[in-house]
Amino acid sequence: MAKDPVRVLVTGAAGQIGYALVPLIARGAMLGPDQPVILHMLDIVPAAESLNGVKMELVDAAFPLLKGVLATTDVVEACTGVNIAVMVGGFPRKEGMERKDVMSKNVSIYKSQASALEKHAATNCKVLVVANPANTNALILKEFAPSIPEKNITCLTRLDHNRALGQISERLNIHVSNLRNAIIWGNHSSTQYPDVSHATVTTQDGEKPVHELVADEGWLRGDFITTVQQRGAAIIKARKFSSALSAASSACDHIRDWVLGTPQGTWVSMGVYSDGSYDVPAGLIYSFPVTCVNGEWCIVQGLQIDEFSRKKLDATAEELTEEKALAYSCLA
């Protein structure tokens, strides 16, 4: 029997990430090759004409899984009945702007969109926040959508996770599919901690630890970390635009694994609501290693954290605590 369509909201759908993301969803990269979708696309009024152009292209592509497209500038219309919400739209930091200015703009946006999701989204709607500052935007959304379970509000650190896998695969000259269990801890910012101390590589002789095969602790604790942390800035310098293709692909990975489950023995990185695991302050949206089963994520427990990693986990938690305080001051 054919499946009922899933309604997927993409905010900021006329932007670069949105433009890269919606065809992936329509093709089945997010929810699987047999899951029909209805796309809800939201953008601001000045982007309405461009948004309509995206809708025309989706119609022209004749995707078999795409059962409908709604393109709107009305947040209530966009949020009504959605099962999955991918929050790409946000206010970008511009030259000369202070962090508080950017935070204030995004607090306003996410307060409004949270209220619409709270009142009009489907029961058990899953939310992924992509727009920066992603962790704190997700926290604000949680505050103003109290009926959405806290486990249903997440932010994107899968992009950083995939970047970490990409760097190791290039270093070892192996296919990325042979790598698993990297971790991104903390904030989707330059304080994030890309950690491969528990990661392994599938070889002809079985599973081997990444640190054993790389055999260069200086690189793993130095250039590897800074390259992943600063990859977004490097792409902006090269392209003159921020990451779009990789961000869209990672958003699909995040939702797919959340909904359909992570492979046995494999974890992924998701920004989720901290319960105090690994001595991370509860009440932050923080990136942890998680496994997913039956549409639910669970933080991987019991991993050994050495002194080097402890300092990194604490530093990014401290930044998130400061961001949280700044966001709440904007609310006041």
TrEMBL record:
This is Malate dehydrogenase. It catalyses: (S)-malate + NAD(+) = oxaloacetate + NADH + H(+). Belongs to the LDH/MDH superfamily. MDH type 2 family. Residues 6-153 form the Lactate/malate dehydrogenase N-terminal domain. CDD domains: MDH_cytoplasmic_cytosolic. It comes from the Eukaryota. It is an enzyme of class 1 (oxidoreductase).
